[in-house]
Each structure stands twice: as structure tokens, then as C-alpha cells.
Prior knowledge:
By secondary structure, the protein is of the alpha/beta class. The protein is 39% helix and 19% strand. The protein folds into three domains: 8-150, Globin-like, CATH 1.10.490; 159-263, Beta Barrel (Elongation Factor Tu (Ef-tu), domain 3); 280-406, 3-Layer(aba) Sandwich (Rossmann fold).
Amino acid sequence: MTRxxxxxxxVRTVKSTAPILRECGLEITRRMYEILFQDEDIKRLFNxxxxxxSGSQPRSLAGAVHAFADNIDRFDECAPMIExxxxxxxxxxxxxxxxxxxxxxxxxxxxxxxxxxxxxEVIAAWEEAYDFLAYTLMSRERxxxxxxxxxxxxxxxxxxxxxxRIVAESEVIKSFYLRPxxxxxxxxxxxxxxLTVRLExxxxxxxxxxxxxxxxxxxxxxxxxxxxxxxxxxxxxxxxGVASSFLHEEVSPGHVLELSPPAGDFYLDGxxxxxxxxxxxxxxxxxxxxxxxxxxxxxxxxxRLPETWYVHAALSxxxxxxxxxxxxxxxxxxxxxxxxxxxxxxxEDVPGRDYDQPGxxxxxxxxxxxxxxxxxxxxxxxxxxxxxxxxxxxxLDVPDExxxxxxxxxxxxxxx
Length: 416
């Protein structure tokens, strides 16, 4: 396919639609997914827990479509968004043959929602702009697919892994140790990246979910640590909680799962001996500890840690996963400074033994306890926790290049 070229007229026309996309982008993306999911084969490619009227994926895509329109005349600024979408698509095994379906759905949604504002000129410009964006995404995705296929232990598409063992980490979190069913090597990954897991759940067909790898690279297995979420019964196809409940209740050692290769644009930047020696602050809330545990193990394996704060927030000791594991790592590595917050300590939780601080992590505490002006920050957890950190760190003049975060699900605008 020849690389499309955006005409100046198309750039002007698409950019002129940015204000209306800011206002009604969510209505457009919801309509787009309605059209797209009329095809059941396409629908099965997506995590349906992120869809519906309250789903996060239509909202995330609305932001991306608006950003594309608003920055189409300076497309380089879209590079982080392109990388994030490409990584998600590769995890879901989105292929070039799927893009025409999205094109039809997007143009149909623009036509339906914009009404008279969807003139022939606007629609023609968006068709040209979509072809340009699709080419950019497919090109980057092909690079990622090829890199996965060439990597030692790598693969393309889905690969079967067998559950080797299961460890209860807390009342609500279990770790699943996964080894290749073909007994082949395990592809390396960057600490912080995720795996896409495809499950066959009775009554649900194929269900796909992303789970951060919770161990360091270099093992002969992957570990994912999954919090059980109870599925609300009133929601339709593959609601939130269906996959985690299935893993917790139905999966046992010997069960075979399908995985796509590790992906994601949230990972620890640089090697400790090659990159920055700035202090490092890893922050997590609840099951958001999975990528930060991977990062911490990786640093320990490399043997040269920068001064590292490992700050974790849990509801109480009953929900606190991997507590002893982190204590053991810190006991052997004086550069690690673990701090635990319990929002609602249980009667059996002892201050100074089980946790260090009652309540929630706050920006005020961070400002007093860690070298904010010098540190790199990596964090993951519930949306409110992450929004507080993102806004608070920026307010403390921490440069954006030192603020790194990941969502379990589509990226959303934390700074809004």
C-alpha cells in the first residue's frame, strides 16, 4: 500500500472539525462502535468490559479522534498516541484486514451524528485522513509484529501457555504462573508491559483481557496477578469481572490459556547502569502493584539500584498482595525504601509491622517524604489515585518526561 499524502485542503477541513469533535466526540465514538459491533467477528476482537454507555473505550477514542483532528497539521505531536494505540492493537491481534470495518463505522458515525455539518467536503477529508492514520498505525504495528516474531522465544498471534501454579496473594488477588505449552523459551519484555490473555468462557465465546506481567523479565515463565471483580449481572456481553471471576474460580494448574506477546508503552525507562541514576519512586494502589513489582524485581536482578521508594496503598492487610515478597526484597537491598498505606486498617493490622501510614497517599506526603524535584515517578492504580498523582506532580513542577503512568484499560485524560 502506498503511503497516503494529506492534501492541504484535507488538513484544513479536518482541523476545522476539531471544535465540534470536542463537543460531540463521545456520541460519535459510541455510534461508531454500535456500527462496528454489528459484525460479531469484529466484536469478539475487543474487550467488551470497556464498552457500553458507561464504558471507557468510547471516551478514550473520542479524546484520540479529537487530538488527531486538532494536531493534524503537526502530526508529530500524535506520536505517543500512535504508539499507545499500536501497542494495544498488537495485543488484540488487530490486522490490516480489520481497518476497512473501522473506516466504514467511523465515517458512518460522523455522517449520523454531524447531520448537515457532515458535508461532502468534510466526509471526503475524513476519509483521506483516516487512510493516512490507518497507514501510520498499520506500519507501526507491522514493525512490532515483526520484532515479536524475530525475538528469542517470540511469536506472532496467539500462543498457548499452561498454568503451572497459582498463588493466593491476598483475599482478592491471585498470581498465575504461566509456562509455554510447547516447552519453548519465553520472550523477554520490558518491566511494566502487559500480556493480552484470550479466554474461552462458557456463554461468552472468546474474552480478551490485558494483565500486566508481575515478575521481572528473564524468568522461564510469565506471572500475572489478577484481582477478582464480581461481574454485575445486568451488563451484557463480557462485562467487567467475567474474566477475573473465571480465572479465580475455574482455572487450576494444567489449564491452558492463549496469550499474545508482551506489549505496552508503559515500562521502566533505561537500565540502571546505562540510564538515569536519579531517585526512583514507584507508586501503586491495589492491584496496580503488578507493573511496579515487575520493575522492582528487574532492578534487583540488575544489581545496581538507584535510591528507590516503593510506595503501595491498600485498603487493609486483607487486600495487601505480595507484602512479604516486597519486605524480603527490601531487606536484601538497602536502596529500597518501602512505604505502605492502609486506607482502612483492620483490627489485626499493626502499625509499624503491617503498614507505615494510615489513610491515603497524598501529594503533601510525597512532597515531604521523597525527593520530588529530582525523582522519576512511575505509578499505576485506580483512576482517582492516578489522577491525584498526575495533577499533583505536575503542580509541583515535575516535568512530564519524569511522570509515567499506566491504566488497566484504555488511557484516559488524567489531567482533565
